[in-house]
Write a structure and sequence with these properties.
about 425 residues; mainly alpha; Proton glutamate symport protein; about 80% helix; about 0% strand; glycoprotein; transport
């Protein structure tokens, strides 16, 4: 039995803590530049390694899953359940966010002087986001479905933001393989099965670097936030403390209420056991702020620890990493109302219902857009006629909150995979590590 400090989740936690301490010391001692130049790059390398194997893993595992399924009716039923549950949990997240922000009223705690300082400091960061949001709004209503079908497999496979296109190609290849005679399709099935096993072994090797990568990522986050002036960063966190508290409270409520309810309806799994099984994936999601980068680890944990069958995990999780944004959608709701409160604007019930609809649609429509969180927020603010410039009020703490909402997004992906697997009778036994 492994000693507790040799377990992966504890090593990642140690990396997070040490990275936090390093970042704080670097800001106080004035060697932030050293951290950016010689520490942060190791975190970037770690993320790149995870992204490198995400597409091959999805392609191989999904082809193997489809060919083993050999049932088109079951495949379409699984797809309907997946998208349906994702949309329901997203709507629940937005409603929880609106409830929390209306109860706490964080905008009332932001002094006018601080508001002006934040607006002037971060105004320049909005130009590209507004333009991209406008392009998203001008797209055809069916653009989302058009974007699923790639015109070039290699172009889709070279961009992790186009994961749905890779899923589409993998399903198409899997269907094609099962349509040909068994003696012709078997070599391809054996190839992708072996290729999938190789990718899983590579995931295990990359995870040996996880504690060091997490350390470098966390140190980089703190330095980027504070620079060489830790006091300024602390003042910023203090000024936006109530807003940050509202977002975090909403995220916690969503996890405890929605996901625990999901387990009660679709399985007998305990929420605590669920978290024990996928801790490394959640911690990596928190560190990297990227569902796509964490996808290989999420798939490995969901299959090996939660007992979700490979054909479910390889189908549900890539879709979730692209369109399921529970944490991000909740943040949109809190941020939109907070900005309106800070600017002295009262939102009507109709406007808040518009937030629910717009944030739900935006979470799908802009999923493949880099920096999707801010892009989505621009779209939401435009829909309720709140000045987009107000986003400057929250950009200072967006990176930290992005880490938290990404962890919730990944938790949601894994939770939905458990629900779908249980409904399809493809949920096996859990395998939990001792703490």
């Amino acid at each position: 039995m492994k000693k507790w400090y040799k377990r992966l989740h504890w090593q990642i936690i140690f990396g997070l803590i040490l990275g936090l301490v390093w970042g704080l010391i670097a800001s106080v001692a004035g060697f932030s530049a050293f951290t950016v130049d010689y520490v942060k790059p190791f975190g970037t390398i770690f993320i790149n390694l995870l992204k490198l194997i995400a597409v091959p893993l999805v392609l191989a595992s999904l082809i193997v899953g489809v060919t083993s399924l050999n049932d088109m009716a079951k495949l379409s039923r699984m797809g309907g359940k997946t998208v349906g549950i994702y949309i329901v949990t997203t709507v629940c997240a937005i409603i929880i966010g609106l409830t929390v922000v209306n109860v706490i009223q964080p905008g009332d705690f932001l002094p006018a002087e601080t508001q002006q300082d934040l607006m002037s400091s971060y105004q320049g960061n909005l130009e590209g986001s507004q333009q991209t949001a406008q392009e998203v709004l001008e797209r055809s209503p069916l653009s989302f479905f058009v974007d699923i079908v790639p015109e070039n497999l290699f172009a889709a496979a070279s961009d992790n933001s186009k994961m749905l296109q890779v899923v589409f190609v993998a399903i198409l290849l899997g269907i094609g393989i099962i349509q040909v005679p068994a003696e012709k399709g078997r070599p391809l099935i054996d190839f992708f099965d072996a290729f999938n096993d190789v990718i899983i072994k590579i995931v295990d090797l990359i995870m040996l670097l996880a504690p060091y990568g997490v350390f470098a990522l966390m140190a980089g986050v703190i330095v980027d936030l504070a620079g060489d002036d830790l006091g300024q960063a602390l003042n910023l966190l203090g000024a936006l403390g109530w807003y940050s508290a509202a977002v975090l409270a909403g995220l916690l409520l969503h996890v405890l209420v929605v996901y625990s309810s999901l387990f009660k309806m679709f399985s007998n799994m305990k929420l605590t056991d669920f978290f024990r099984a996928i801790r490394p994936a959640i911690l990596l999601g928190f560190s990297t702020s990227s569902s796509a980068a964490t996808l290989p680890v999420t798939m490995e944990r969901v299959e090996n620890n939660l007992g979700v069958d490979e054909e479910v995990a390889s189908f549900v999780l890539p879709i979730g990493a692209t369109i399921n944004m529970d944490g991000t959608s909740l943040y949109q709701a809190v941020a939109a109302v907070f900005i309106a409160q800070a600017l002295g604007l009262d939102l009507s019930i109709a406007q808040q219902l518009t937030i629910v609809l717009t944030a739900t649609l935006a979470s799908i429509g802009s999923a493949g857009v880099p920096g999707a969180g801010i892009i989505m927020l621009v779209i939401v603010l435009q829909a309720i006629q709140v000045p987009v410039e107000g986003i400057a009020l929250i950009l200072g703490v967006d990176r930290i909150l992005d880490m938290c909402r990404t962890a919730v997004n990944i938790t949601g992906d894994a939770a939905v995979s458990v629900a779908v697997a249980h409904s399809e009778e493809l949920l096996g036994e859990m395998h939990l590590e001792d703490d």
